[in-house]
Amino acid sequence: MSVAFLIARRELRGGLRGFRIFLACLALGVAAIAAVGSVRVSIQEGLAREGATILGGDAEMSFTYRFATEAERAWMEANAITISETVDFRSMAVVDGQNGPERGLTQVRGVDELYPLYGEVVLSPDIPITDALAIHQGVPGGVMQQVLADRLGLSPGDMFRLGTQEFRLTALLEVEPDGAAGGFALGPRTLVSLDGLATSGLLEPGTLYDSQYRLRLPDMVNLQSLEENALSRFRDTGLRWRDSRNGAPGIQEFVDRIGAFLVLVGLAGLAVGGIGVSSAIRAYLDGKIATIATLKTLGAESRTIFAAYFLQIGLLTALGIMIGLTLGAVAPLALSPLIEAQLPIPAAFGLYPAPLAEAALYGLLTALIFTLWPLARTEQVRAAALYRDATGPARSWPRPVFLALTVALVTLLVGLAAWLSGIPALALYTAAAILASLLLLSLSALGVRALSRRLSRAHIVRGRTALRLALGSVGGPGSEATSVVLSLGLGLTVLAAVGQIDSNLRSAIEQDLPEVAPSYFFVDIQNDQLPDFLDRVNNDPQVSRVDTAPMLRGIITRINGVPAQQVAADHWVLQGDRGVTYLTTAPPADQVVAGEWWPDDYAGPPLVAFAAEEAAEIGLTLGDEITVNILGRDITARIAALREVDFSNAGIGFILTMSQNALAGAPHTHIATVYAEEAAEAQILRDVAAAAPNITAIRMRDALQRVADALSGIAAATSYGAAATLLTGFVVLIGAAAAGERGRVFEAAVLKTVGASRGRILTSFALRSAFLGAAAGIVAILAGAIGAWAVMIFVMDASFRFEPVSATAIVVGGALATLLAGLAFALRPLAARPARVLRARE
Length: 842
Hints:
Keywords: Cell membrane, Membrane, Transmembrane, Transmembrane helix. The protein is of the alpha+beta class.
């Protein structure tokens, strides 16, 4: 090892020439993963540090359809220093305009005088929230977000209505400290006082609202013990508990998932970089043929030469990883103001060792995987063969030990990705997709070379010298086809997959759903309001369909007597409250996939029909018993039927459908969907709101637009990851072009000698580059479309439709990228003098 280290040290005296592409590829891949990981940890730290502010208290107890009972309130007062009561629901803000009432959907929060316990509400103009919501001259105040005020044409001092209550807009809401805890909302926020809501008619029995009690707790209180105590006392009352340890679980889960996904996209970038690493090492070793041959002639053993170059590459790997870690750590800090401006929650940006260590580990394993193969070749090739091979080492398989070690390293890298990402299934699928893409691209590169060789001899290209030269070069020995198709193709594959997924999601939201989705969801229709509502919409000739259903909400607390969280803790059906309904008549027979529906006059023990797909996911079968807490009352029902529920058409769908006798006497409202022509929507809304101000209308086009906006953010994030992968691929492409420059110099010299003009030689080089880029793009479209199809069908549970526009852009972009890279390294070969080049070869 001492001799190997001495050789490595002397070799490195020549500088980094030949390793710049190596360093760039490794640094870019590590930097992307380190930056994503650092941003994710920064958000997690921000959530942890500001958990109480995000939640609005050290802990929160919430209930659906009701306020806390005396016993629940007494427990809070016994354990908390301060209690703040709020209520949250959807409603319509109404303004009397010049052309009649104008309405806008809003998420209303009624607050008490103690709100907020933590943080500060920021208003414009800057006044205290208690003053903004106070009652002046019999009219309570209210504040709302700018987007809603603009939509309704309101300015501070103007009047608006919620239900039957008039409010005066006193200020615009700029910062709601606990706004992120509420998760996704269909409308902008309006804040009013609980006293102001008392006479609005919006909090009637059966109306859908959530009451929340934020608790300021003594210092050093054990939140885990307090949660267990609360749930043991009130588990069966429909209580939901949250505390500052995870103030915004939905956001935290989203950040973890999107962060892990982007790390996996970053691994695809590292795979592209690994190809560049392998190509750079091959090119470097090709230039060291004489040195290696001389060392072997002087008695150096193969393992000594292997160790010498392994040490060199090891030191350069450490340098590349350090550069990548520096970029990955500094970039989030430098861009933190821009990132924070896009986040609804605080982020604590800083230097965090965990994501940097993860990125370094990924980079080290990738470098090992892609350097062993070319290094192994130097160990097994003899000196005489090296002297004979003027163009590079012999192409041969390394010893089995190196193949086994490569497989072991790939397995370790995939296993670490599965473990560290937190979503092992997605990590394994991603790894399989990357390996499959590399295999497909490798086979495609061989196919391109074979096809080019055959076409170069075809009769059709005779007389077209530039084209024939280009095809012969792509198919001949020393071709750049493999490195170009692999490096650029994998980057384009990731970009193609992201583009196809994004376009399919947008198509599903913007084109498919509006054709079949209802115009409006109407909620909170009281029992005595339902006949008039149905009379209005059913007698409208522009209304094609109206569906209604009783609407309650409940929490599944037990399954077969066991707490539901112990049976299927992570399933979405058990996270929060779910819609519950009943039917007065049996549904169509084709909707019941298992079991039997009860008679219309059934009066026995409670029965329930469960959504078939969700029941299978949880593990429920016919005869199982589930306990649902509705309005603080436990209802235990036996599963008598499994029902097919289609949520894809945006209509009414319930996981739980109970027998009518199980819900007898429970206060409830109705939900309705109205399918109407767009021209009739505004008048329907005006008529319904005028007759029943408490009814809330949710316009589906607006709701779908908010979903589309949310998906745009996800698509942008994944596109950035794909762009980083593509940038790495372009660097590898430049490396391949640079590595082939010496061969093109000799080729140009020979062509000039036999009479070829510079223009014809340049055209040949350009055609060669364009062919390889187009080939990489076409293969990338195929691989990306397969990946996008798998994601849409198996992950998104949606249909897939090939989108040709982005596909065309991929092919054109690939061809253009290789063309530019090829032309950039064509100037020196064109300028070289044939005599000087040919004499040097002698």
